[in-house]
Structures are given as structure tokens and as C-alpha cells.
Amino acid sequence: MSTKTRKSSVSYRCTECGWTTAKWVGRCGECQSWGTVEETGAAQEHGRTQAARSVAQPAKPIGQIDSSVAQFTPTHVPELDRVLGGGLVPGAVILLAGEPGVGKSTLLLDAAAKVAGGRTPRDVLYVTGEESAAQVKLRAERIGAVADKLYLTAETDLSTALAHVEAVKPQLLIVDSVQTLASSEVDGSAGGVSQVREVAASLIHAAKTKNMTTLLVGHVTKEGSIAGPRLLEHLVDVVCQFEGDKHSRIRLLRAIKNRFGPTDEVGCFDLAETGIESVADPSGLFVSRTPLPVAGTCLSVTVEGRRPLLAEVQALLDKSSTAQPRRATSGLDGSRVAMLLAVLQRRAGVALASLDCYVSTVGGVRLTEPATDLAVCMALASAAQDRPLPQRLVCFGEIGLAGEVRPVPDINRRIQEVARLGFTHAVVPASPSGPGKVPQGFSVREVTTVSQAIELLFPHRER
């Protein structure tokens, strides 16, 4: 075979996204992944697979499909059911990812025990590849997650794990984690791209053929994305992200992808020594409880998914002892706080250029929504004036570089939430539709600029 013929019969394909190229490259030109381009055979103009002579189950009109077999079954963990859209769907494959130590295993062990020990007990198989069975048993006893129909095995071999599935025949399978299982039929170490792909494909096939709900625990990279091939997120039905600060007990569960429900729901949990508990009303967790009003604090309402949460922003200003004033943030985007400092300095006349600025949230919550801009500015203005804001007041609104206060979504929902919690005043952005129906006894003031908001809350202020 000539060299020319040899070159024309070889192509290279990315194992992550399927991108093909005529020559080998170290980095995929489509998904920008390193080391995923592998040599394949000649690119075919037509597929090699031929149509089967017969099919076991012919296609049916969609109206004749029985959907009762795919109904939600609650896990009796309220916040988990909220994020999943109502509970577990038979045959669904759910991927739960999160940083080490955030509480993924604790959450799934608690859910497994409640499914296995509920009013209608179901067989649950928990496959752990990171701990021994005795270690998992100790955690289960500590959090009260022991049930007769909860089966436990410590296994890292995929074929053995599938044999356990055949023996137990569970309605719910939990694998902790997908990166620790490995197949002897595939080259590479556990956690590699080829191994994760084979493990996921085998478990998904077992879940669909046996109508068995499967929960997979996934690791994350140092950038926060799910480790392994991107194909893993496409194959599963639901992808959930478990988040939380290691120094706080509060944990948030978000659905990034959900074929059976909404992707804008957020579940809130309290992780303690005795286990993990659902928090139905987490608004009070992110607010300080000082007996007297303090300058430099302002309350805001952020919307996580479809849930409004009350949060507090605190600001502290001090005379700088260096030529370059210090800017420090905690729980907020530092670059956005720097922008708001510039807007206050330029558009509202608040002198902050020579002061050290410290801005933080309460309770370890991270505020990324632009609707909290107005609360940050009011906290900074309160600290600059050394005058506390009125009690039972909340502020929310997005602030632009021109100093304007822009409308934000769900204004009326935010107002209804703070009114339920006992607040009586709100400063909100002016919008064409207005704030909507306001509860009785609640006062709403609309503002269009940040300087107008400062003049409203701090009349006769010093410049």
C-alpha cells in the first residue's frame, strides 16, 4: 500500500464531541479538549449498519403509549423531590455532581434509606467504590439511615456491580461514584474517558431495560465542571449540581438538566452532624440577628430558580493606610462590586476612592444575581454616611454604568415574599407595569437612579 493510500484511509476523531480531522492534533478544534483526538478508520460516506430483518416491538402511535409506568415516585426528601420535579421516575438516570465533602453521599444515603423504609418499601442497592461497606454503615447509623431493604456493597469492578444488580433486582440503584468503577473489557484506569464512557453506557442500559431508577455520583474538576467526558451529561436524564461553602452548613441543589421537570428549581439543605435536613423556608438563614440597626447593612431579595430568598449585604469602610485602597469581597463578585463603587463615586457623589472597602454577605450565601446591585450600593452609602437604613426595609434592582436602576424579573413575587416575612418597606426599580398588587400595609417606593435612591433613604446627606 502506498503512503498516499495509507494517509487517505486514516482519520482522527475527538472522543468527547465527535469532531473529525484528517490529521492528528493535540487539541480538539470543536470542544477545545486536550488529548481526546484518536485515530480511527477511514471516514465512510455511508453507515455500515444495515436495517434489522425484524423488530421485537413495533412502533406505536404516541396516543397508545402507556405513560403510567413513568410516574413520579417521591423520595420523602422534600427538597430533593422539588428539584427533580416530583420524585424519581422509573428508568431515569440521574447524575449528582459536587465538590468533595459537600455532602453528596450523605444526601443519597438518606434518600436511599427513606425509599427503602417508606410506607411502600422498595429494594435499594447502594454501590460504593470510595469507601468500605463498614464505613458507609457507620455513617448510616449516625444519620439514622438504616433500613431492611437497603442493600450495600463495596465494589469497583463494573461486571461484579452488574451481577449484584441481577441478584438484588432493585427499584433504585445508587453508584458512588461513577469515576471509581472500571470495566476489565476496556483499557485505561478508572476515571478515564474510555472507562467512564463504558461504565455510564452499561449502567444506563441496565436502568432502561430493567426500568430501574439510577443515581450516579460524579466528581468535579478544579474549575467546577463535571469530570469525565461531556458525553456523560448528554446520556443521563437529569444532571444536578450540589453546592455549598465548607464553612457553612447550608447546601443548595440545582438541576442543570431535567428531562422530567423544570430546571429552575433550587433545593436547600442543612448539613449537620446528625444528617442532612430539607429547609423549606431558608430566607432567615442569610440574615443577621442584631438587636439594633447597624450602619452598612442592607437586605435584598434574590431569586434562586423560582424561589425568592432574603439575603443581607454588609459593607465596612475605613480610612486606607496605603496608597492603594483595599477592596475585599465575600459572597459577591469582586469585579461587579468594583463597578458599583465606581458608579457611586461618579454618579452619586459618594467619596470612596481613598477608603478601604469590605463587602460581604451573611450566612455564606453567594449572590450572583444583578438584582442585588441596589442593596450593595445602599449598604455602601449607609457605611459612608455612618447612618443605618430604616428597619424592615429591603432594596433590590440592577444598576447600570450610567447610574440608572433597571427593572428585574419577579418584582411582585419578591415583594410578596418579604411582606410574608414581616417587612413593611421596599425600594424597587421603576417599571412600566409597576410593582403589581401590593399587600395591605406595605409601602413600595420606585426609583430610577441610584442617586435618587440615596436621596430617598438619606435625606440631607453629607457629601
Automatic annotation (TrEMBL):
ATP binds at residues 98-105. Residues 356-463 are annotated as: Lon-protease-like. Residues 69-220 form the RecA family profile domain. Gene3D superfamilies: 3.30.230.10, P-loop containing nucleotide triphosphate hydrolases (3.40.50.300). Keywords: ATP-binding, DNA damage, DNA repair, DNA-binding, Hydrolase, Metal-binding, Nucleotide-binding, Stress response, Zinc, Zinc-finger. PROSITE patterns: RECA_2. A motif (RadA KNRFG motif) lies at residues 257-261. DNA-dependent ATPase involved in processing of recombination intermediates, plays a role in repairing DNA breaks. Stimulates the branch migration of RecA-mediated strand transfer reactions, allowing the 3' invading strand to extend heteroduplex DNA faster. Binds ssDNA in the presence of ADP but not other nucleotides, has ATPase activity that is stimulated by ssDNA and various branched DNA structures, but inhibited by SSB. Does not have RecA's homology-searching function. The middle region has homology to RecA with ATPase motifs including the RadA KNRFG motif, while the C-terminus is homologous to Lon protease. PANTHER family: DNA REPAIR PROTEIN RADA, DNA REPAIR PROTEIN RADA-LIKE PROTEIN. Belongs to the RecA family. RadA subfamily. NCBIfam families: sms. This is DNA repair protein RadA. The gene is radA.
